[in-house]
């Protein structure tokens, strides 16, 4: 059944002619390194990302992964010269300029544009931001300790549940993880909406628990400060905006134009947040909460210049965000490609696009295939359609690979760790690509024919 689905998938990819490859790896319960392979292509001017399978590897260095990619492409009758994009995370073995996977692929196909997953870029920036600023670093450290302290004991968690109110909102605390893209916002939101319950829980444990009472008292002291409350309120707003962006960046239908627009809108919202009026609102809100709960008063430090490690200048954080997103070499032609979609687009703009990146007008063996797929559009606007197809083929994230890891954890559990690789990959294809129909009569006939052949062979022996 998996072979039947894969044949349908490969048929669509071959019809598209050009495609992009998305790769990510994780470790399963058997401690085997599993590589998730997705292909992105355009079907009727709609981008699609399809799963080809999980492939086990003994090494994650650049050379081994490239050999694996070539093997997968050959197995599925796909040619490396038809790759127009490659999207990975920021690991050195992937993005290395000389021996990384992207560099090795581009040596054989210079048109295979490398894209560092935008969702990973945003997450890495937020993780780095949380480590650079002292008050933010301290607040997240307190949140991590709080989650571990309450969640490590059923007795302490029971006290927390008793203190919870019936108000709407999260009814549990959330953990912090550097690789989960939404966890920081969820952790901030869960503590902010359950702040009273958290304080009452720690106070109760500090008073009644002889063994862990001192730990609860220390945590309570860290929380009952103006600095903690101010950072909690401010960062919840900031991470709400970045969480919206993160969810958009994980879409399989996203393209560079939408990514550019969403990043600009997010940065614009941060610029609006950096005003005296908005700062005063956060300050007043933190002051009210601190006074109502008897927390320590704010202790304003003397004004000093911004450290160079944070960029310096008035808009250092915003500039750093922009620099992080400009890490991809393809980012510079976004505005020009969007210009093609504008009614004021002129013929001489084609030469500008061509000079900026020859990927747009490469005469490849796939030209005829593209015409077959989009003949209706291409009849009237051939060059324009080619631009759109190549533009939509370039990926922006590896969120599909990340989602496949969730399927991997469901399929290979601690009760089924001895499952062989072929069966695991086949089940994953059927589970992830549910939208592809299966002709069960065809499958049964094929299975019956193969069983008959095996039976005759046994008879002859």
Give me the secondary-structure topology.
Blueprint: H1 2-16, E1 19-27, E2 33-43, E3 46-57, H2 62-75, E4 83-88, H3 92-95, H4 101-108, E5 113-116, H5 118-132, H6 134-151, H7 154-163, H8 183-193, H9 195-208, H10 213-223, H11 226-249, H12 256-273, H13 276-293, H14 316-325, H15 334-340, H16 349-356, H17 367-373, H18 375-380, H19 382-393, H20 399-411, H21 421-432, H22 440-460
Q: Tell me the strand percentage band.
A: 5-15%
Count of alpha/pi helices:
22
Outline the biggest β-sheet.
5 strands, mixed
**What is the mean predicted local confidence, pLDDT?**
81
Q: What's the shape?
A: globular
What is the helical fraction, as a range of percent? 55-70%
- Uncertain runs: 355-371
First and last CA, distance: 30 Å
Tell me the series of helices and strands, N- to C-terminal: HEEEHEHHEHHHHHHHHHHHHHHHHHH
Count of beta strands = 5
- Walk across the major sheet and give the strand order: 3-2-1-4-5
Question: Structural class of the secondary structure composition?
Answer: alpha/beta
Features:
22 helices, alpha/beta, 5-stranded mixed β-sheet, 461 residues
Write up this protein.
By secondary structure, the chain is of the alpha/beta class. It has 22 helices and five strands. It has a five-stranded mixed beta sheet, sandwiched between helices. A hairpin with a 5-residue loop joins strand 1 (19-27) and strand 2. It starts with a helix and ends with a helix.
């Amino acid at each position: 059944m998996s072979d039947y689905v894969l044949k349908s998938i490969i048929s669509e990819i071959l019809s598209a002619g050009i495609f992009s490859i998305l790769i990510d790896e994780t470790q399963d319960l058997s401690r085997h390194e599993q590589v998730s392979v997705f292909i992105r292509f355009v079907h009727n001017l709609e981008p699609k990302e399809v799963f080809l399978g999980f492939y086990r590897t003994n090494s994650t260095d650049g050379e081994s992964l490239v050999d694996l990619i070539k093997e997968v492409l050959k197995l599925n009758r796909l040619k490396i010269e038809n790759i127009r994009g490659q999207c990975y995370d920021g690991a050195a073995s992937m993005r290395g300029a000389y021996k990384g996977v992207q560099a090795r692929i581009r040596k054989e196909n210079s048109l295979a544009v490398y894209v560092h997953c935008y969702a990973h870029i945003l997450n890495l920036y937020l993780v780095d931001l949380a480590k650079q600023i002292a008050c933010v670093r301290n607040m997240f450290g307190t949140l991590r300790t709080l989650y571990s302290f309450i969640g490590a004991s059923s007795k302490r968690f029971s006290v927390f549940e008793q203190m919870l109110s019936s108000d709407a909102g999260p009814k549990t605390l959330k953990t912090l993880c550097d690789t989960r893209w939404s966890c920081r916002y969820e952790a901030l939101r869960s503590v902010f909406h359950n702040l009273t319950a958290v304080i009452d829980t720690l106070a109760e444990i500090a008073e009644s628990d002889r063994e862990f009472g001192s730990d609860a008292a220390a945590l309570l002291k860290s929380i009952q400060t103006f600095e903690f409350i101010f950072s909690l309120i401010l960062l919840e707003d900031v991470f709400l905006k970045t969480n919206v962006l993160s969810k958009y960046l994980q879409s399989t239908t996203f393209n560079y134009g939408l990514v550019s627009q969403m990043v600009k809108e997010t940065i614009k919202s941060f610029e609006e947040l950096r005003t005296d009026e908005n700062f005063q609102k956060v300050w007043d809100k933190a002051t009210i909460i601190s006074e109502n709960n008897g927390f320590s008063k704010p202790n304003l430090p003397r004004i000093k210049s911004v450290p160079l490690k944070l960029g310096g200048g008035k808009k250092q954080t915003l500039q750093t965000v922009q620099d992080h997103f400009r890490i991809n070499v393809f980012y510079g032609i976004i505005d020009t490609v969007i210009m093609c979609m504008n009614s004021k687009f002129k013929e001489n703009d084609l030469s500008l696009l061509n000079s900026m990146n020859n990927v747009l007008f490469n005469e490849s063996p796939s030209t005829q295939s593209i015409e077959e797929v989009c003949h209706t559009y291409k009849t009237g606007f051939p060059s324009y359609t080619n631009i759109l197809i190549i533009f939509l083929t370039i990926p922006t994230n590896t969120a599909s690979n990340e989602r496949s890891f969730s399927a991997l954890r469901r399929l290979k559990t601690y009760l089924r760790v001895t499952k062989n690789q072929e069966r695991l990959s086949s089940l994953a294809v059927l589970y992830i690509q549910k939208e592809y129909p299966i002709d069960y009569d065809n499958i049964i006939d094929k299975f019956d024919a193969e069983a008959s052949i095996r039976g005759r062979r046994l008879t002859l022996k």
